[in-house]
Amino acid sequence: MPSYTAPTKDMQFVLHDVLKASQAQVPGYDELDESFTAAVLEEAGKLASDVLFPLNAVGDTEGCHFENGVVRTPKGFKEAFELVKEGGWTALDCDPEYGGQGLPYLMAIAISEILASSNMAFNMYQGLTHGAYSAIHAHGSDEQKAKYLPNMVSCQWTGTMNLTEPHCGTDLGLMRTKAVPQADGSYKITGQKIFISAGDHDLSENVIHLVLAKIPGGPDGIKGVSLFIVPKFMVNEDGSLGDRNGVSVGKIEEKMGIHGNATCVMNYDEATGYLLGEAHKGMRAMFTMMNEARLGVGLQGYSQAELAYQNALAYAKDRLQGRDVTGVKNPEGPADPLIVHPDIRRNLMDQKSFVEGARAFTLWGAHLIDQAHLNDDKAADGLVSLLTPVIKGFLTDKGFEMAIQAQQIYGGHGYIEEWGMSQYARDARITMIYEGANGVQALDLVGRKLAQDGGKHVMAFFSLVTDFIKETKGRSETFDAQFREPLKAASKDLQAAGMFFMQNGMKNPNAALSGSYDFMHMFGHVCLGLMWAKMAVAAEDALKNGASDAAFYETKLKTGAYYMARQLPATKTHLARIESGADPVMSLDADQF
Amino acid sequence: MKVLVPVKRVIDYNVKVRVKADGSGVDLANVKMSMNPFDEIAVEEAIRLKEAGKADEIVVVSIGVKQAQETLRTALAMGADRAILVVAADDVHTDIEPLAVAKILKAVIDAEAPGLVIAGKQAIDNDMNATGQMLAALTGWSQATFASEVGIDGDHAVVTREVDGGLQTIKVKLPAIITADLRLNEPRYASLPNIMKAKKKPLDEKTAADYGVDVTPRLTVVKTSEPPVRQAGIKVGSVDELVAKLKEAGAL
């Protein structure tokens, strides 16, 4: 039977030993002392293990049902959703003015990992609501905020994001859904939206759709897109629910994974909508929460790797197959456990070193978002926009890859549904696709983020790494050999790739874009290398200060050394590919394929 | 009425327990620790009494190492009003024996004057099942152990007990000591707002010496060992062979 236990100890390590959260000069961080964050993480972990995780397989096998125009979620989802609501978990980082708990985003992300690992499909109902909450909070009028936010903070009403249409996904300029202005200031929205996660369901009394549409007569293409609030049930002046709006579910999709989440085709038929923010500035409104949304998807990617790793590890310790080549380890048994074999170790170390690095990277990203929002720190904002496509693209690619590796540990049993590994791989797969497919993330990184503000942010990243390398000079011989030197080499590769783009990208954009995917992965490796080096510093310091839990910190150092030795050198391959330019990629005519 | 609930920090029920190499006990260093599940049920019952208007204050007490304050915070987050931590050991491996615990609790009762004590029937680490009973003896109060249902009726408590033959309902005079069994209730999950509030609830720290109790162990642990590993079985060809094997093994 698969199981899940929240990695609270590792989260505490990142929050306190690495990020030193309670000392950071960010409003609200002084609340985050160790015992408080431990209590919050433990309680969320309890809910995740006892309630949400048992429903993960239920959601996968049962899926959602669409009958007589009504979407029904899997058995047990409704009760579990009530528990999550009652626990106040939906409101963690929301504005206290609308009933939120007002904790930093950093804490929300730590809790999100726990909820996503235990049941990703389930957690999306709340996740999408949070996204819609953020959009209304950032762009809504006071009246709109007062009308919608309190019920969205509590998840009494859930939210959705409607971007994709049958003929337009990444290229939203092709959008056809139209919004016709009415005399009373509202709009009539007509069109079809597809792939709408949590589009409709039986978990809440109302669904607040955020819909991108074009106001006739506005600018062409992407510049003419506006954002609208379209409630499933109209909301009366007194806050009570009124008539059903002209929005309905066409069908729900049969998907590869996340079966517990209803992915809907939504039909808007002269539905009443209200402009959110300014007309024709819909994309800008969407972009203000893009960093958060993409960081959230990067998190989903590694959350599935974490879940898969926990189970693969238990299996590797339990399953007896073959003997240790260096000598029998389990003389009483008919064979030794899988974990004695070097290739199984290699596989487990890949997973462990990735997941722990990814966790630190994501929490650091969340910390930067807090600095940007709460301290109005422009540098942090620039840095996190640069890192966002890396978090999204790299962590989801690797998250899926690691879920597949975890499945491999099980041999044939990994392919059998009962063991859970198939679901984790299938669920992880979507994270590479939605919220901007990973190829688009690479394009965003190389085509937009590198040069943003005159390349200021990427330069800031490089100085951050260089400064760290300088500061840690002479720490210890092992740190130098195992962490500092490999980080230095990888960072040099990344700079060389950036240089190649600068020299070649202007005259031949294909030279840069042919290497964009490699660059994204290379960047990801350097970020995880940086995280591991930082974690190594924290672990060494803790050991020096006589930490009671020496074994934990020693394990950290060894896991980090593995990443630096076995994963980070991938930057060399990526650099070679990038420097080969556009020719190998583009030399065939389309007809020659 | 004030309700006192003693809670113990024990090895988490999900943790696979490992015996220390020298056999002196189980390894507790860096192992996940949680509130004893029976104590969680006791805290829940106290909160329900308060919600039903039968109690007005819930005081939780833990006796042991300093880290037990995390356990107390959990109880506060569930809904207890304040906490008392009695530090009686430095090493997480030191277990305070039931008699010493009962004596400290008696001293706490003298200071706090609760109308009711609800304790877990036993802690899942050593399974002593003794503290509640000893406390009743020391205080001279009535006791109702292994409760699966608790009602307050004026100056009496009506308690349904899980006994070998089924259920037994007794009426005891308050103040009393009740010990909670597994089926008394299902403890709630602490909500995020309550975890935040728990930070600000009072937690007093005392020592065993403050109450004049000597916690020196009176029992000696002779040996701690893992349960024997289950041996592989054999298939028998007939009933006769089965009977013969059972006789051989001395089972018949």
TrEMBL record, chain A:
Domain Acyl-CoA dehydrogenase/oxidase C-terminal: 281-444
Ranges of residues in domain Acyl-CoA oxidase/dehydrogenase middle: 161-269
Catalytic reaction equation(s): 3-(methylsulfanyl)propanoyl-CoA + oxidized [electron-transfer flavoprotein] + H(+) = 3-(methylsulfanyl)acryloyl-CoA + reduced [electron-transfer flavoprotein]
Residue ranges constituting the Acetyl-CoA dehydrogenase-like C-terminal domain according to the UniProt record: 462-589
GO molecular function terms noted in the UniProt entry: flavin adenine dinucleotide binding; oxidoreductase activity, acting on the CH-CH group of donors
Pfam families, per the entry: Acyl-CoA_dh_1 (PF00441), Acyl-CoA_dh_C (PF12806), Acyl-CoA_dh_M (PF02770), Acyl-CoA_dh_N (PF02771)
Domain Acyl-CoA dehydrogenase/oxidase N-terminal: 78-154
Keywords: FAD, Flavoprotein, Oxidoreductase
Co-factor requirement: FAD
InterPro entries hit by this protein: Acyl-CoA_dh-like_C_dom, Acyl-CoA_Oxase/DH_mid-dom, Acyl-CoA_Oxase/DH_mid-dom_sf, AcylCo_DH-like_C, AcylCo_DH/oxidase_C, AcylCoA_DH/ox_N, AcylCoA_DH/ox_N_sf, AcylCoA_DH/oxidase_NM_dom_sf
EC number(s) per entry: 1.3.99.41
Record-linked PANTHER family: ACYL-COA DEHYDROGENASE, BROAD-SPECIFICITY LINEAR ACYL-COA DEHYDROGENASE FADE5
Family: Belongs to the acyl-CoA dehydrogenase family.
Cited function: Involved in the assimilation of dimethylsulphoniopropionate (DMSP), an important compound in the fixation of carbon in marine phytoplankton, by mediating the conversion of 3-(methylthio)propanoyl-CoA (MMPA-CoA) to 3-(methylthio)acryloyl-CoA (MTA-CoA).
Protein name per the record: 3-methylmercaptopropionyl-CoA dehydrogenase
Organism taxonomic ancestry: Bacteria, Pseudomonadati, Pseudomonadota, Alphaproteobacteria, Rhodobacterales
UniProtKB/TrEMBL annotation, chain B:
Necessary cofactors: AMP
Domain of life: Bacteria
One Pfam family recorded for the sequence: ETF
GO molecular function: electron transfer activity
InterPro entries: ET-Flavoprotein_bsu_CS, ETF_a/b_N, ETF_b, ETF_beta_N, Rossmann-like_a/b/a_fold
Keyword Oxidoreductase: no
SMART domains, per the entry: ETF
Keyword Nuclease among UniProt keywords: no
UniProt keywords, alphabetically: Electron transport, Transport
Stretches assigned to the Electron transfer flavoprotein alpha/beta-subunit N-terminal domain: 23-215
BP GO annotations: carboxylic acid catabolic process
Function: The electron transfer flavoprotein serves as a specific electron acceptor for other dehydrogenases. It transfers the electrons to the main respiratory chain via ETF-ubiquinone oxidoreductase (ETF dehydrogenase).
Assembly notes: Heterodimer of an alpha and a beta subunit.
Family to which the UniProt record says this protein belongs: Belongs to the ETF beta-subunit/FixA family.
Protein name, UniProt field: Electron transfer flavoprotein subunit beta
Protein's gene: etfB
